[in-house]
Structure formats: structure tokens, C-alpha cells
């Protein structure tokens, strides 16, 4: 159960009184998530989501509020946080930072169809187009600058073959990106897996959980999406889902020449990013709560497939 700090009805009711959100009818803990305590809150006027932040850098929470406010103002399907009577969104509840959000419609797509892939590509392209003008700044915490020191922490737990694979890849990325032209920058979701989206049928109800949000290479975000949304269990890219997401994305924000050149390498680097982060959770820094870590081998498989097969061709953009 991903509720690490239980709340009483009285606590939630008092918290709600700060907002123009109605009176509490019911509160229910959400049995999902790995880092924060989440509750579905029903008032006499609306459905809400209450999040208590259990770990992470709390001083970075204002960045996430600003980013969600910005994207909400630009009509992206994101849950802009509720602000209280004084215009403040971030509060403390049970001695934890807390935010209140509207509950967006839909469910996670376990096996996304092409219509859902098209909707996701369109929304991400729109988000990246407007996020290039977002004034906030938070360096990407999981880019190449993180890979370089952190991969050494897991090498002792790997086979000689996997040690060589990881060390060689990191060295290749460093050589490639040190010489590559700068890529377009903007605000990223940072973790836009299928379970961080909600679909009401084929309609994208929302992109959620922006707590890996940051600023950096827009291509990094897109590669994360393809490695999850358009990838089969054996690591192969699904051509239809791949082409559908990328065509819809580029209808909003066409990739430039530098991005197209860097695309195969970015797919590899973001696969290794998740292989490494999951290895760290298993062997080095287990979660504070009793949760089952994600399987690191999933992204080792994806990385090896990207090395064997390369990337599928990028769709061309109509002129």
C-alpha cells in the first residue's frame, strides 16, 4: 500500500478548508506509487488527489508547482495544483509537504493502441513546444552528468560481460555528446511511462507525476517515451507505435538535424539510465518503504536490442 503517512478525515477536512474545493465526503488511500503517499479525496463538489511528499528534495517542490501551473495555463492535459484562498499551492500536512490536484479522468494504458499513441505523441510535442519558453530551471538529475559517476557504484554487482557493456556505453555517450551540437532545451516530464498517463478510451485524460520534471534536452524525454510506449517485451521496437508517436510529435515540434543525428544514441543512453537507476535501487539505495523494485533486466534487454538493431528510421516531416 503506497500510503506511508495515514491521514484522518479530520486532518483532510481541515486541510480542505484552506481551498475553495468543497466539504469532505470521503478520503481513500491509493495503493499505487513508490515514493509518496497519495489519496483520492471526494468533496461535495469534485474529485481530487492529495499527495504527501515522503522523500526527495523538498526545496525543489516549488519548481514542480511552477511547471504544472505553466503547462496548465498552456492547456496541456496536466493536473495543475489547486491554490488556496491566498494563492498558495504548497502546504504542510502531517509534517509533510502536500499538494492538492484535480483528479483527471482515465486509466493507465497497459497495451496502448495507435490512437492512444497518437494522442500521447501530440501532447508531448505540444508540451515540448511551449516548454522551451518555461522560465524555471532544474538541471536534469539523470542525464550523462549523473551516469558518469553513478555507474561505478553498481559494477561490482554485475557480470564481467555487463560491466564491460556499461563502461563501454558510458564512454561512448561521453565521446558522442561532448562533440555533438547542442540540442534544443526545455522543460521535461522526465519519466513519461504508460503508468504516468491516464486515458479515457482513446482520449488522453492526463499526464501525471511530474516529480522527475526538470529542464534539459527535449530529445531525452522523447527517447524515454519510445523505450516504453513503442517497445515489445523482448526489447524490439514496434514499427507502428514508433512511427505513430513520432509523427504526431513532429507535427507539433519537428526534430532538427542535430536531434535526428543524436536519436539512436539517445535511445541507448535513456535505456541505460533506467537500467542503472533500477540497479541502484536493488543493490545500493533501496527504497525507504517495503516495496518491490522494478526489474533492472528489462532495460538491459532494451539497451542490448538498441545496440543490435539500432533505431528505426524517423518519420519525415511534411514541408
Short description:
The chain has 319 residues and is of the alpha+beta class. Helix content is 41%, strand content 14%. A hairpin with a 2-residue loop joins strand 4 and strand 5.
Shape: globular
CATH classification class of the largest domain: Alpha Beta
**Biggest sheet features:** 5 strands, antiparallel
CATH-assigned fold name of the largest domain: Aminoglycoside 3'-phosphotransferase, Chain: A, domain 2
Distance between the termini: 51 Å
| CATH-defined superfamily of the largest domain | Aminoglycoside phosphotransferase (APH), C-terminal lobe
SSE string, helices as H and strands as E:
HEEEHEEHHHEEEEHHHH
Give the strand content.
5-15%
Q: What is the multimeric organization of the chains shown?
A: single chain
Number of strands: 9
Estimated radius of gyration? 20 Å
Structural description of this entry:
This protein has 319 residues and is an alpha+beta fold. The protein has two domains: 9-102, Phosphorylase Kinase, domain 1 (2-Layer Sandwich); 114-309, Aminoglycoside phosphotransferase (APH), C-terminal lobe (Aminoglycoside 3'-phosphotransferase, Chain: A, domain 2, Alpha-Beta Complex), CATH 3.90.1200. The chain is built from nine helices and nine strands. It has helices at residues 9-16, 61-73, 114-131, 144-150, 160-179, 218-229, 239-252, 257-283, 297-309, and strands at 24-29, 37-43, 47-52, 91-93, 96-102, 185-188, 197-200, 203-207, 214-217. The strands form three sheets. A five-stranded antiparallel sheet has the order 1-2-3-5-4, with helices on one face. Strands 6-9 form a two-stranded antiparallel sheet. A hairpin with a 2-residue loop joins strand 4 (91-93) and strand 5.
Amino acid at each position: 500500500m503506497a500510503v506511508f503517512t495515514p491521514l484522518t478525515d479530520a486532518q483532510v477536512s481541515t486541510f480542505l478548508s484552506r481551498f475553495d474545493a468543497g466539504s469532505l465526503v470521503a478520503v481513500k488511500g491509493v495503493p499505487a506509487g513508490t515514493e509518496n503517499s497519495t489519496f483520492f479525496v471526494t468533496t461535495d463538489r469534485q474529485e481530487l488527489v492529495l499527495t504527501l511528499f515522503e522523500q526527495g528534495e523538498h526545496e525543489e517542490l516549488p519548481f514542480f508547482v511552477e511547471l504544472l501551473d505553466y503547462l496548465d495555463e498552456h492547456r496541456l492535459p496536466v493536473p495543475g495544483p489547486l491554490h488556496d484562498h491566498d494563492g498558495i499551492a504548497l502546504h504542510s500536512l502531517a509534517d509533510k509537504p502536500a499538494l492538492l490536484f484535480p483528479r483527471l479522468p482515465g486509466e493507465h494504458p497497459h497495451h496502448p493502441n495507435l490512437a492512444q499513441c497518437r494522442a500521447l505523441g501530440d501532447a508531448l510535442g505540444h508540451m515540448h513546444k511551449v516548454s522551451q519558453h518555461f522560465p524555471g530551471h532544474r538541471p536534469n538529475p539523470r542525464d550523462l552528468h549523473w551516469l558518469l559517476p553513478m555507474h561505478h557504484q553498481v559494477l561490482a554487482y554485475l557480470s564481467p560481460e555487463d560491466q564491460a557493456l556499461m563502461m563501454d556505453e558510458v564512454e561512448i555517450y561521453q565521446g558522442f555528446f561532448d562533440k555533438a551540437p547542442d540540442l534544443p532545451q526545455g522543460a521535461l516530464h522526465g519519466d513519461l511511462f504508460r503508468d504516468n498517463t491516464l486515458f479515457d478510451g482513446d482520449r488522453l485524460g492526463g499526464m501525471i507525476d511530474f516529480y522527475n520534471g526538470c529542464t534539459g534536452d527535449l530529445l531525452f524525454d522523447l527517447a524515454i517515451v519510445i523505450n516504453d510506449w513503442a517497445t515489445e517485451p523482448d526489447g524490439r521496437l514496434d514499427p507502428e507505435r514508433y512511427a505513430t508517436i513520432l509523427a504526431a510529435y513532429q507535427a507539433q515540434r519537428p526534430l532538427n538535424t542535430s536531434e535526428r543525428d543524436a536519436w539512436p544514441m539517445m535511445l541507448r543512453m535513456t535505456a541505460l539510465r533506467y537500467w542503472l537507476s533500477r540497479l541502484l535501487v536493488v543493490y545500493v539505495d533501496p527504497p525507504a518503504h517495503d516495496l518491490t523494485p522494478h526489474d533492472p533486466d528489462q532495460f538491459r534487454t532494451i539497451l542490448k536490442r538498441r545496440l543490435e538493431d539500432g533505431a528505426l528510421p524517423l518519420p519525415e516531416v511534411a514541408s
